[in-house]
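User: I'm writing a tutorial on reading structure tokens. Could you give me a worked example: one chain, its sequence, then its tokens, then a sentence or two explaining what the tokens reveal?
Assistant: Sure. Here is the example chain.
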Amino acid sequence: MTNIQDMFSDPQAVARYTEGPPRFVPGYNAMLSMAAILLAERARDDARILVLGAGGGLELKTFAQAQPDWSFDGVDPSAAMLGLARQTLGPLAPRARLHQGYVDDAPEGPFDGASCLLTLHFVDVSERRRIAAEIRRRLKPGAAFVAAHLSAPNGDEERPLWLSRYSAFLTASGVEPERAAAARNAVTNHLEILTPAQDEAILREAGFSEPTLFYTGFTFRGWVAYA
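And here are its predicted structure tokens:
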């Protein structure tokens, strides 16, 4: 976890961050647009949305552009990444209150919707359960929660196959083969990737209903569920 925190505090890594997700996550921009649509299905026109892992500001910007009357509370542990979020939002920044910290530092709400994108694969299973429960507690009844992160089938043959496909996607996206191989090794050795069934079970255990898969991009998956 320390290495991840260091990465998101390194000025050069932060400066390059917004270039990364569209290249490293299959269908990233479309996933953000779908997340905005799913949140809007249950949210009011003037909704207040919780965004956990808001550093960089890419999802905040997508949501703000899609819904001009929404306001946001964005939470992230990295001050540098929150600074980048303000920069990414530009003139939209006044609509987002940014909080440095973790889920416990998020306002109590209640919120009309929440997202946690490309974040949960950085923490272990027990912390994922706790984060999901804390988000659920902050949502209005029936509000949508959208989550997306690394999630892949297990098995001695199946998981390596999906990781190989992910590495091939990176190379096809213009990432140098050595860097693509390093990314695969980092995912394999430093992140705790759950199976889709385990991810859905965590949502149900936290009190969410109807967890539904809406996005699959090789080793990435996204769900919408309801408080």
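What the tokens reveal: The chain has ten helices and seven strands. Residues 1-5 have pLDDT under 50 and may be disordered.
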